[in-house]
Amino acid sequence: MSKGLREYLSLATAVAKWLWGLVRPVGGYIRATAVFYWQNGKTLRSGVWLWITDKLPALDRPEDIRRELRMPLADREGLRNVDGVWHVDLPDRCVMCGNEAPGAWLEEPRSALDPYLLLMVPFAGLAVGLVLAWWYSSWWWVGLLPCAGAVAGYALRRNELFLLRLKRCERHADHRRVPELAVLNRRLVMRLGTREVKLAFLRHEQEYVALGEMLPPPELTAESVPQTIALADSVAPDAAIIADRTELRLPASDERSGDEIP
């Protein structure tokens, strides 16, 4: 083998190793993207359903609507962000049944994947791919751009961390699935055990209210009671009477005596 050929083969080998060093991480990243989408298929399907029911609430199940809370991830009463962790303070009652729970407060860490970008970026790639496929008469765009969008969505994925402060009664001490948490486009979806727990969270009550007990009505103030004045006590009661002084006039040809019947 000549010296020039050996130098050429050595250069080709070095270039191939350099290209492999570039392609191998990209291939590994694409493989990790595919595995991630496969393992989180249930979360992605739930995200699609949450998006649909957010736009069309009538499609959601009534039992879920009764005990479900949807609110933006922003600081408010009962929800605050501390060093990147959302602290959720639930009411002083069993989170499952809504009854009194005399035990100590529990703190449970949770994490929820936000599937919004994981879904929207591939869908946007599909839309652009359809336009380019029609423009260039090539269907390669339809397969290429959604895959690129999936890789971009995987790179932009985010998890939200939560710390729940709640109580459970003795009967539901092992029901750790409730409350159920989900996040979509930085909106928290929290499903509690009953409607009473949901209403208690919205009221942010400080004292325990028994299950099924109605809250006392608000006290009426003097300003809220409508003031009326009797007509006889008004300044000018005759002014409220509209006198009808219009006289009925018949044409001369139709004037007849009261005893005549037409």
Characterization of this structure:
Strand 2 and strand 3 (85-94) form a beta hairpin. Mean pLDDT is 79; it is low at 205-209, 211-215, 240-248 and 253-262. Helix 4 packs antiparallel against helix 5. This protein starts with a helix and ends in a 59-residue tail after the last helix. The chain is α+β, with helices and mostly antiparallel strands and 262 residues long. The protein contains 6 helices and 7 strands; from the N terminus they run H-H-H-E-E-E-E-H-H-E-E-E-H. The protein folds into 2 domains: 1-39; 41-203, no CATH class.
What labels would you give this structure?
6 helices; 262 residues; disordered C terminus; 3-stranded antiparallel beta sheet; alpha+beta; 2 domains; 4-stranded mixed beta sheet; 7 strands; 40% helix
Q: Summarize this, please?
A:
By secondary structure, the protein is α+β, with helices and mostly antiparallel strands. The protein is 40% helix and 18% strand. It has helices at residues 3-39, 41-55, 62-67, 116-136, 140-155, 195-203, and strands at 68-72, 79-82, 85-94, 106-114, 158-167, 180-183, 187-191.
Record the SSE blueprint.
Blueprint: H1 3-39, H2 41-55, H3 62-67, E1 68-72, E2 79-82, E3 85-94, E4 106-114, H4 116-136, H5 140-155, E5 158-167, E6 180-183, E7 187-191, H6 195-203
Parallel strand pairs: 3-5
Antiparallel strand pairs: 1-7, 2-3, 4-5, 6-7
